[in-house]
Amino acid sequence: STVRMLRELALGIASEARTAYRPRTGTRYVREHNGKLHEVTVLDDGFDYEGKNYRSLSEIARAITGTRWSGPAFFGPKARKLTR
Fold first, then answer.
1. What residues pair up with 39 in beta bridges, in sequence order?
2. Helices (H), 1-84
3. Which of 11, 56, 62, 70 would you label with 29, given CA atoms 20 to 30 Å apart?
4. What is the pLDDT of residue 24?
5. What is the largest CA-CA distance in the chain?
6. Cα distances (Å, whole numbers) of residue 26 to 42, 46, 48, 69
7. Which residues is 29 bridged to in the sheet?
8. What span, in angstroms and rounded, lies between the C-alpha atoms of 14 and 74?
9. pLDDT digits over 32-43, tens only?
10. What is the pLDDT of residue 17?
């Protein structure tokens, strides 16, 4: 089922696949970068970072670093993931 879900996600045909990997609304990601603490909150329709809405974690990682990053990699295992 995981392979099927990943295939559907890659093809963009299953909303179930997209939501299966989406963090819960209210989840907070915290990451320190260049001495500054960055906090992101998951919304129903995207992500909030510094009072601005973003569609993806990757957009936020790009805004923080100025370079293209995978959002999940940037906010991933070494970053603290906090939930409500």
1. 30
2. 2-11, 15-20, 57-65, 71-74
3. 11
4. 86
5. 41
6. 5, 11, 10, 23
7. 40, 81
8. 25
9. 999 999 999 999
10. 45
4 CB-near residues (< 8 Å, 6+ apart): none
Instruction: Please identify every stretch of the chain with a pLDDT value under 50, giving residue numbers as ranges.
Output: 17-18, 79
66: left (phi over 0), alpha (psi -120 to 50) or beta: left
List phi, psi (to 5°) of 44: -60, -35
**Residue linked to tokens 């500054």:** 36
What is residue 39's predicted lDDT score, i.e. its pLDDT? Answer: 95
d(CA 19, CA 49): 20
pTM (two decimals): 0.67
| Backbone torsions φ then ψ of 24, nearest 5 degrees | -65, 145
Q: Which of 67, 27, 73, 31 is nearest to 47 (CA)?
A: 27
